[in-house]
Amino acid sequence: MKHASVMHDLLHPRSVAIVGASEDESKWGGRLLRYMTRHRIQGELYPINPKGGTLMGVKTYASLSECPGPIDMAILLVPSSRALAAVRDCVANKVKVAIAITSGFAEAGPEGEALQQSVLDEAKAGGLRLFGPNCMGLMNTHHNLAATTAVSMGYLETLPVGCIGMASQSGALMGALLARGIDVGAGFSTMVSLGNQADIDQNDIFDYLIQDPHTKIIALYMEAVKEPERFVQLLKQAQAATKPVLIVKSGRTEAGERAVQSHTASLAGAWPSFEAICRAHGVYLFDNVFDLLNGAMVLQRGASMNKPGLAVFSGSGGGGALFVDALDEAGLSLPALSEQTKSHLQDIFLPVHRELPVDFGVVQPKAPVDPVYGDPVTTAIGRVMEDESIGAGIVFLTTQPGMQHIARATAHVGMQCGKPLLFVHGASTVGEEARAYLREQGYGYVESPNDAMKLCTELWRRQCAALQTPVPASLQAADLAVPAQAGFLSEPQARRLLESAKIPLVPSRLAKDEEQAVQAAREWGGSVVIKAVSPTLIHKSDIGAVKLNLDSEAKVRAACQQIQDALGKAGHTLESFIVSPMLQADAELIVGIQRDPDFGPMVMLGAGGVLVELLNDVQLCPAPLSADQALAMLNNLRCRPLLEGWRGRQPVDKEKLVHILVQLGQLALALPRLTELDINPLLIVDGQPMAVDARATVA
Amino acid sequence: MKHASVMHDLLHPRSVAIVGASEDESKWGGRLLRYMTRHRIQGELYPINPKGGTLMGVKTYASLSECPGPIDMAILLVPSSRALAAVRDCVANKVKVAIAITSGFAEAGPEGEALQQSVLDEAKAGGLRLFGPNCMGLMNTHHNLAATTAVSMGYLETLPVGCIGMASQSGALMGALLARGIDVGAGFSTMVSLGNQADIDQNDIFDYLIQDPHTKIIALYMEAVKEPERFVQLLKQAQAATKPVLIVKSGRTEAGERAVQSHTASLAGAWPSFEAICRAHGVYLFDNVFDLLNGAMVLQRGASMNKPGLAVFSGSGGGGALFVDALDEAGLSLPALSEQTKSHLQDIFLPVHRELPVDFGVVQPKAPVDPVYGDPVTTAIGRVMEDESIGAGIVFLTTQPGMQHIARATAHVGMQCGKPLLFVHGASTVGEEARAYLREQGYGYVESPNDAMKLCTELWRRQCAALQTPVPASLQAADLAVPAQAGFLSEPQARRLLESAKIPLVPSRLAKDEEQAVQAAREWGGSVVIKAVSPTLIHKSDIGAVKLNLDSEAKVRAACQQIQDALGKAGHTLESFIVSPMLQADAELIVGIQRDPDFGPMVMLGAGGVLVELLNDVQLCPAPLSADQALAMLNNLRCRPLLEGWRGRQPVDKEKLVHILVQLGQLALALPRLTELDINPLLIVDGQPMAVDARATVA
């Protein structure tokens, strides 16, 4: 069966049978029938119950075979013990897709897993597609389809129509988002609880949402990634379709990963690579589903944040000040307003108040009507949001006279300014009128300042890292110096590989013996470093085969002797010495190439030395990467201050560092045999990055 | 007038006059009269309006002089232009305290400031105490006093009686908290909007709340600290009275401080010292007022968090997993449950589910009734909260059947378990029944997972740093070696001072000349460091008067020559050389003594070297400090991993480091003449902390 066709049967069925329908709303079968009848799907509805008759006024059939027409979709509410029979019945009656709500399958242990496999085999053999099991069903507001058992649905008189398409691996969280969505005025096109994904999976739904003309924003709650390659392809398609993708993935931490594993069959996968892939494709990443919903609520208006400047508006000086403290801590800034903006505000505020945060409490009496925005509050919000330094805005409402007016002014400006403008409702039910207005307008609001700051932080963070256009290959395998045989590369081999990839290295000479080493040291002048080269030796430092700070011939000779002795004792043969000048580094980084089993080659950049343990300061980016992406990696390092002219040192040459990262990406692409590469350290000497040591393995 | 008496007149007045009362509720005078009549103060109410007659059914007087009895309190709602006359009238009629709601005083510029001073002078001369101006008044629920213009008050049919006493420097934020408080079931004893604090100030109210028998929790929103000494005394009194104090202070960041200054006359003061003082006195510090309210809501039940273990309960595996990710990032832990706890859960969950996070979705059918807690959900929450590894709990509600039951179970356990148990309501209005139950019980809830995590983080953080008992003095001024004259101490002087304070130092020898230096170097063996001593030289490194890594006699001699030349060039006289062994440090710290103009002597501990710029890793604690406080400083350092056995290095001897911090505190106390002391670096050599260089100034 064609894929597009099954998604059509699933989300736009012309006829739906409910197997296990009931009159009793305390049962799933009664609840689901209630929702389906209330929202009156555009098609036929066949309740199935052995007793026949009518249920909730709808003619009911004793079995699928008695239904008067073809059945696109069957919703199975029978216990797991009767699931196999129900699926056989679906097959016999040429049902196209079945939603299995029932639990007791793969999530419940080995027995359930075997049952799930039998059900799946039976369905596949009969040409029946399966959704679930162990799910809460789905909703398509544009088809009046409420095929879900979610408790929240019981509270909806009308479906919350909109452009947010959502798929959730957790049914409970889907239900919570549906409920919160009603309250904040979010509109959904499609909402799907994925369950065990025995057949139709998250990627299928993701694909559908990208195609669906009613969906403009895609929101996913994930616990694991199925078929990572397809997932990445879909991220690219969503990006090409300019549909923002918002994701929450649990299992970001070790403890979270254990929690995910304990309630689902799937492994969470490594978060850092997942994060890097998402960032490279412009995904908005959130920590929890309510933040995700807040993001969708703001983005459904087509706005995006392109500057780190945040405008804060409040009816209270104190409230404004608290937001200013918070945004400073979040890395966002409160810009100075332009002279033009100030001139627009001159009749509204005294000179001292024509600044951020804007305080509505000090609006001048008798401010004239602005030609564009009208009243003073709307004008203040509108003119400040126009300021070119502003990327997004927050309006903080406390309990005050004229609350609805502030809400109206915010919605008016926010709907049209093209920048995210978030309403932080701090007036609780006292401000219900304002809240109701924003809900009815589908504008929405948040009630926690913490939620507001997390949202703005992510809106801006996402802006910094996305890849805009594909990076072409610029390195050819033929240009790269790499041994034909598999295995660990010796240091000279690794150096040749880096040289061929145009990555700058600390200069060095190979010396066959002590005499040549002395000669090399003399040529470098000053202090030198001597290291052993041996085909069998991997961890040189561990056995004392690296000697630093050698500033005399005597020391060079002694070092050569010591290295030879150390190698002999450890059972290695000396191939040669490497002699390099001893450099004074201003900073120390680690860069390299890793290959993620799910997401392929990644370029890594991290703080080196003592900071590795302390800061966990590592950035990943999928290869190949653009110069912009490389720069974003660099700018996101926590140790960034050390690279920007610390204590009078020379700032690092960012262009050179970017070049190294870009070349590593190209190297990963051109040489699939290269399974890993670690340049540690990459020293910054007088602002110039250069590789000192490299470890590499080829397959 | 006695202070206690004025606070009684202010918050328990036997008679209140409203100057500027009105029938029109769109005016402050109408609104205030409406609130006062609705809640019927226990005493006399005299509306004052030139027209006389009745207003809202209450007999109204044309002026204060016509009132039939004495007036404890007058609320002034007249414009600022008529404030002086109104105050004179109060004085003439022997009013005891006046609340000036009106704005247009010190907050509005120099003219307003002058007006405020005149009003204050007039009041003082006449024995009238003043509250405000530019405030929203106050409320005492236990006296049915609703003397506030807060818009939120219009939505209250009954006053929200409870034990949270609150004072806010922002009227708007007070109003917002009153509104949010209604919604989350928080009960207030007293709520005060401070305004400009011309006379009665935050400390007066703080003092009152400590004495007030109806107040168990004290919550303050502050922008500046008036009379820091008194404030600290009050912190001590609140601690002695075991009343938790919760504070939000704006102006934590530079940008926030500017925002505060722009709307209030007061300077915010330095946040780090304020934070240190608060932490030392067990204050809960929050970033925004809603977090503060959430804290008060949880603490009003008398619970406190004494372990970092957090129990997470959820009806959804996905919801649980998201919280686990978040708490891991917040430094809290999800402990393993004890065998005893597991045995209590054995009939409720399968073995694999007898762990955190607890998932209500997998309760076994037919679980028996627990003798203590009854039903399975209450039992699961109750038994897990009893576990000795648990310090606090979070119940996360998604939309699911039986939501009210989960709320009831949470409130039941939470009211009596003595540990904070927070209800995170994620079901929005769909879960209104559960929400209403928690509201009515005065139990409360939060709706944002971010708010929940911030609250738990602060509940635990506060636990770690409070000083339990005063620290006695253990160092006497007479024991300390310090020059009699004021000024900057030379290095030998600073070393003698540290030695007399029993602070370990890197060993050193004084050398009068090059020969003595060579001799000293020989005695130390290995590499040495040589530094210049000169009475006029402060920044030795800057002019090249410090030479490191001298490992031969030739180098020692050369170094002495270079230092002498450098001193000569810079116009300093050489007093002597200091010769010390060159030590290999595993880590580098900075410690010292600072004197805050508001809060007095502080001991400082920070990461040294490159980390200073990078981590802003500084801890302050008021002197003198206890060993526990010193240990908390150490444990709160971001660079802590470097001190605990990094890359196989020896862990720092914490006892020694704690001793140094404690001694610094004692030194600050014993020697008030010591205006500042910086030990930089304090090296950690083979686990032992030792001072290498010290800069000190005495007055």
TrEMBL record, chains A, B:
Annotated CoA-binding domain residues: 10-105
SUPFAM superfamilies per the UniProt record, alphabetical: Glutathione synthetase ATP-binding domain-like, NAD(P)-binding Rossmann-fold domains, Succinyl-CoA synthetase domains
A Pfam short name: Succ_CoA_lig
SMART domains, per the entry: CoA_binding
Coiled coil (residue ranges): none
InterPro entries documented for this protein: Acyl-CoA_Synth/Transferase, ATP_grasp_subdomain_1, CoA-bd, NAD(P)-bd_dom_sf, Succ_CoA_lig_flav_dom, Succinyl-CoA_synth-like
Keyword field: ATP-binding, Ligase, Nucleotide-binding
GO molecular function: ligase activity
Database matches in PANTHER family: 3-HYDROXYPROPIONATE--COA LIGASE [ADP-FORMING], ACETATE--COA LIGASE [ADP-FORMING]
Name by which UniProt lists this protein: Acetate--CoA ligase family protein
Origin species: Alcaligenes endophyticus
High-level lineage: Bacteria, Pseudomonadati, Pseudomonadota, Betaproteobacteria, Burkholderiales
